[in-house]
Amino acid sequence: MKRKIEVWDEAGHILAHVGKGVLITVAAEGQVNPMTIGWGTLGIQWGKPIFIAFVRESRYTKELLDKNPEFTVNVPYGEYDKSILSICGTRSGRDIDKVKELGLTLEEPETISVPGIRQLPLTLECKVIYRQDQDPNAINEENTRRYYPIPEGWDHGDYHTAYYGQIMAAYVIE
Ligand SMILES: Cc1cc2nc3c(=O)[nH]c(=O)nc-3n(C[C@H](O)[C@H](O)[C@H](O)COP(=O)(O)O)c2cc1C
User: Fold this and answer.
1) Taking burial as the number of CB atoms within 10 A of a residue's CB, which of 13, 106, 123, 139 is the most buried?
2) Domain of residue 16, CATH code
3) Is 59 in the pocket of ligand 1 (CB under 6 A)?
4) pLDDT tens readout for residues 10-42
């Protein structure tokens, strides 16, 4: 069962967890792929409720998100298995099927094609309505140095793209 929530009533809970790690889940080409994120923004633009996720160029999640621009945000609500966030934050969907490996239970979505995850039950269903590659020239020196060293074999830093997901549905899986 899905218990509907008013997203602003849970904004504090959601953002407190983003700081510690939540999942975004994407799906394309028959694969569902959850990834841990520690950065995210909740707010309003164009009069719509929006969750913004920041995804680096190197992530498999980015590859899938560019093919199917929809995602769910999966937030702990009560007790949860911490290994979910550590595995989804260190292993790539290019190498393993994280859903299978962790025994995650997928929940049929209401408005998009990407499922929620029962183990992290507070769910935001999001449709990407805007995306923006972050401009390296607009990032200050301190953050460039700290977050964007040039990976071996690359000629530029592993920059983030901001994906603005309009929140189409919000609920807790019970
Ligand atoms: C606590 C934590 C927070 C993270 N936050 C982000 C993030 O906001 N954006 C991002 O691109 N990667 C982030 N990562 C790294 C990805 O989760 C990690 O590289 C993952 O293995 C990528 O999976 P994928 O290749 O299947 O997309 C985070 C990792 C951890 C452990």
Assistant:
1) 123
2) 2.30.110.10
3) yes
4) 999 999 999 999 999 999 999 999 999 999 999
Number of domains in the chain: 1
What pLDDT is attached to residue 59? 98
Give me 58's structure tokens.
């190197």
DSSP category for residue 43: E
Would you state the structure tokens that stand for residue 15, as one six-digit string? 């953002």
89 lines ligand 1 (CB under 6 A): yes
Cβ atoms 139, 158 nearer than 8 A: no
Which is it for strands 106-107 and 22-28: parallel, antiparallel or unpaired?
A: unpaired
pLDDT for the residue 112: 98
Tell me which residue has its CA closest to atom 10 in ligand 1.
Answer: 55
Bridge partners (DSSP) of residue 107 are 116
| pLDDT number for residue 113 | 98
State which residues of the chain have pLDDT below 50.
none
Range of the domain at 44: 2-173
H or E stretch at 16: helix 11-20
3-state secondary structure of 164: strand
Chain segment 126-140, per-residue pLDDT in tens: 999 999 999 999 999
Pairwise CA distance, residues 6 & 8, whole Å: 6
The tokens of 29 are what? 């080409």
Does residue 92 line the site of ligand 1, with CB under 6 A? yes
